[in-house]
Amino acid sequence: MEALKHFIDSVSSPVTIFTLATVLFVLFVSFPRISTSKPVSLLLLALFLAFFGLGLTDEHFRGIVTTPDNVPIVGLIVVFGYFTWYAMRKAVINDMRMEKGEPTVEQTETNEKVLVFPYLIFIEFVVALAYGAGLVLWSIFLKAPLEEPANPMVSPNPSKAPWYFLGLQEMLVYFDPWIAGVLLPTFIIIGLCAIPYIDRDTSGSGFYSFKNRRWVITTYLFGFWILWILLIVMGTFLRGPNWNFFGPFEVWDVHKVVPLLNVNLSELIWIKWLGIGLPKMWFVRELPGILIVLGFLFITPVILAKTVLKSAFKKLDPIRFGILVLLALMMLSLPIKMYLRWGFNLKYIVAIPEFFFNI
Amino acid sequence: MSDGTTQPATTGPTAIPPQTPSTVKPAPSNPANTVMGPDKIDRRTFISWAGVAWVSFAAATGGALSIVLRFLFPNVLFEPPTAFKAGLPSDYEVGVVDERWKEKFGVWMVRTAEGIYALSTTCTHLGCTPNWLPGEAKFKCPCHGSGFYKTGINFEGPAPRPLERYRISYSEDGQIAIDMSKKFQQEKGEWNNPESFLTV
């Protein structure tokens, strides 16, 4: 038992957990029929409960998951996991019915209409009562007291944002504040607003389905689960003092030393590879990084339009295609930058501290 | 209410009210007068009342806004002193990062064999206050994990540039004087400025 805990702690790092979660996610959406079938679903549930149940016997794990601030995140994993599974299960059933030429579940249900009042309203009323009672119990049993007055000279260690911002705080580890705090959130909001204008395909609307909307749903779920929920979960449970990364059973040691020496791309290129030292002019110094970023943003879309996304380029007009690819590249820039940091200790691709511009 | 004939105002598919003489209007001779009745107001009255209403509405809104604007200018403004005297150089031990002024002024005093410099306690990433970890000999920010050497140079985490140094000099009475209104940034080459370092 202790050996297992120690093993989990020793392999826990941002890169292993992020990679493992991505692999699991890819498996889930690649084989939706198997992953939502009864035996696999029950197995996953049993594994989750076993991990959580055994984890609760560990003093440190219990302390973290039962902290009043963190309890909602445990609930969030359960609730979001269940609803993702539920939607995928319904989609799989509809896909199988359509393959056999049968109408979808929703289409058969439409024929049996019931009135909103009283049938739906009554259910909603009961749920609202139960929800209200739950909130009262929550507020009684989970205390959220005010802390001591803020002191600008003392930052709590670790200083954690509210849970819904922990994804942003995790992004701030890898990006300059203006990107992680302003640019990427703006792109998230604009991108979500833009979905109905970019994706005007009506196939599969009105009922759960996955097969004919595989890429769209997968992209959305990747952004939601891996790039947002996973980062919140990591920020809540696995980030400790000095924003160091800790395994789920590891004691939060303030003096944990993680050797980290981050270098900028310019230092790698000019000092390590060319061996001639950093140029004095910031523009010359950062030219390779600037070219890489510009290429990523403007040449990749052209390549994509001619290769992998050929069909999408034909279906959408150039403007919509351009917006789609720009949004997708901005989304991908997060995992790309994270892996660059983990793999090569790369700090910034473009680093111009002269006027606070870092990418 | 079922009998439409007794209620002239009631309209319905089957109830057509009989046109009693009181409800029959004469053919309008002047179109402007058709909307006028004994209890109706004419256009001039309406506009003058609307004017009063708009003026009072604008006055109320403006008054409320002016109170909001007033809040932008506080009665008392707390401005911490930008300069202080930090004692004698002999008060500081060589090789030690001194935290005695951190709480009050946000300054770390670092005494090296050559002299003393005053480091700002504001992280250059997002402005949290890092902690000095003597065991690891580094400043470590609890918010996003930025790390700085004792010199203030950033080496880990997302901080894009080194911690800032403040102007440091001797005052007339031999004490060290720190002037926080003047900052020296390493990436601009300002640490070469003699005012950023006090030779002892």
Features:
heterodimer; A: 359 residues; mainly alpha; two-stranded antiparallel ribbon; 15 helices; 67% helix; globular; B: alpha+beta; four-stranded antiparallel β-sheet; elongated; disordered N terminus
Helices and strands, with pairings:
The complex is a heterodimer of chains A (359) and B (200).
Chain A: H1 2-11, H2 14-30, H3 32-35, H4 38-56, H5 59-65, H6 71-99, H7 105-110, H8 116-141, H9 166-174, H10 177-198, H11 214-238, H12 265-273, H13 282-306, H14 310-315, H15 318-344, E1 351-352, E2 357-358
Antiparallel strand pairs in A: 1-2
Helix pairs in contact in A: 2-11, 9-10, 9-11, 10-15, 12-13, 13-15
Chain B: H1 43-71, E1 83-85, E2 97-98, H2 102-105, E3 107-111, E4 115-120, E5 131-133, E6 138-140, E7 147-148, E8 154-156, E9 165-170, E10 176-184, E11 198-199
Antiparallel strand pairs in B: 1-10, 2-3, 3-4, 4-9, 4-11, 5-6, 6-7, 7-8, 9-10
- Helix and strand run of chain B: HEEHEEEEEEEEE
The number of helical runs of chain A is 15
User: Any low-confidence stretches of chain B, pLDDT <50, length ≥5?
Assistant: 1-15
- Count of helical stretches of chain B: 2
CATH topology of one domain in chain B: Rieske Iron-sulfur Protein
Supply the CATH class of one domain in chain B. Mainly Beta
Please compute the radius of gyration of chain B using only Cα atoms: 39 Å
- DSSP strand tally of chain A: 2
Question: What class would the helix/strand composition of chain B place it in?
Answer: alpha+beta
Helix content of chain B: 10-25%
How much strand of chain A?
under 5%
Domains of chain A, number: 2
- Strand portion of chain B, in percent? 15-25%
- List the chains of the largest interface with their residue counts: A-B, 33 and 29 residues
Query: Which term fits the overall shape of chain A?
Result: globular
Mean pLDDT of chain B: 82
Largest sheet of chain A: 2 strands, antiparallel
CATH architecture of one domain in chain B: 3-layer Sandwich
Give Rg of chain A in angstroms.
24 Å
Instruction: Give the strand line-up of the largest sheet of chain A.
Output: 1-2
Tell me about the largest β-sheet of chain B.
7 strands, antiparallel
